[in-house]
Amino acid sequence: QAFFCLLFCIPWGSSCPPSCQCTERAGAKAVLCSSQHLEEIPEDIPRDVVFLKLDANSITRIPSNAFGHLSHLEEIDLSRNAIEKIDGAAFKGVAAGLRSLDLSGNRIRSIPKEALLALNAKLRLANNPWHCECALQEVLWEARLDPDSMRDITCHTAPREEYVGKPLLQVLDAGANFCSVRQRTMDVAMFVTMFGWFAMVIVYVVCYVRHNREDACRHRLKSLPGTQAHAD
After folding, report:
1. 3-state DSSP assignment of residue 225
2. CATH number of the domain enclosing 92
3. Does any domain span residue 167?
C-alpha cells in the first residue's frame, strides 16, 4: 500500500526539467521555463505537456524535431530569446495540434517557409530583424498570423533601400512583390541556360554539316578521271 502511494502520489512537478516549474492549468499540464538563462530547448520536457513557456531566455536555434515527442502540445512561447536559425522540420510532429506559437522579439532574419506553412497555429513573428523576401511574403499570405502582430513585422533589410524600416504589410500594399523578383531571376537563369544549350546545338550542327561537306568533297575528288589516272 505504501509502495502504490509513493508511485501515484508523487507530484507531477518532480519530473520537471531543471530550473523549470511544472503546474496544471485547467487540467492541462504546463511547463514554465521563463527567464532561466536557457541556451537551448530542454530535452527532458514531459511528453504530456500542453503549454510550454520558454520565453525570455537565450535560445539561439530551434533544431529539427525539437518538439516531436510532445504530441499533446498546444501552445509554445519562444518570445524574447536570441533565436537566429529555425530548421525546416523544427515543428515536425506538433503541426496538427499546435494552436499558438510565439516567436516575437528574437533575431530571426529568415525562416524556411515549410517550417511554418504546415502549422495550423496562430503565429506571432513581430519584432524580428526580418529580411523581406519571397518566403516571408508567402508566410504572411498563407500562414495564420496573429492580426495584432502583423503590423510589427518590419523589413530590417530588403532588396530595395526604400523598403528598409517599413512594415512588410505597407510595402506589399504599395505594390511590391518579392516573389515576382525571384521569378524574374529564375526566368533569366532559365533563359541563359536554354540559350547555352541552343548555342551548343547550333555549333554541333554547323560542325556536322561542315564535316559532311568536306567528306563529300574528298569523295568527289577521288572519283574524278584525272585523279584516278594519276593514282594509277
Report:
1. helix
2. 3.80.10.10
3. yes
Count of domains for the chain = 2
Pair (25, 49) in one structural domain? yes
Q: For residue range 59-112, list pLDDT tens digits in order.
A: 999 999 999 999 999 999 999 999 999 999 999 999 889 999 999 999 999 999
Q: Are residues 126 and 195 in the same domain?
A: no
Which one, of 67, 107, 72, 64, lies nearest residue 89 by Cα? 64
Report which of 39, 71, 157 is spatially closest to residue 108, judged by C-alpha positions: 157
What are 167's strand-pairing partners? 154
Q: Is residue 218 included in any domain, yes or no?
A: no
Between strands 100-102 and 122-124, the pairing is parallel
> pLDDT digit string (tens) for 133-183?
999 999 989 999 999 889 899 999 999 999 999 999 999 999 999 998 544
Same domain for 48 and 143? yes
CA distance 114 to 186: 20
**Distance in angstroms (rounded) separating the CA atoms of residues 177 and 217:** 60
* Domain ranges, residue 150: 21-178
Angle at 57 between CA 92 and CA 103, to 5 degrees: 45
Please give the model's pTM, rounded to 2 decimal places.
0.73
For residues 84 and 60, is the Cβ–Cβ distance under 8 A?
yes
Residue 164 CA to residue 155 CA, distance in Å, equals 5
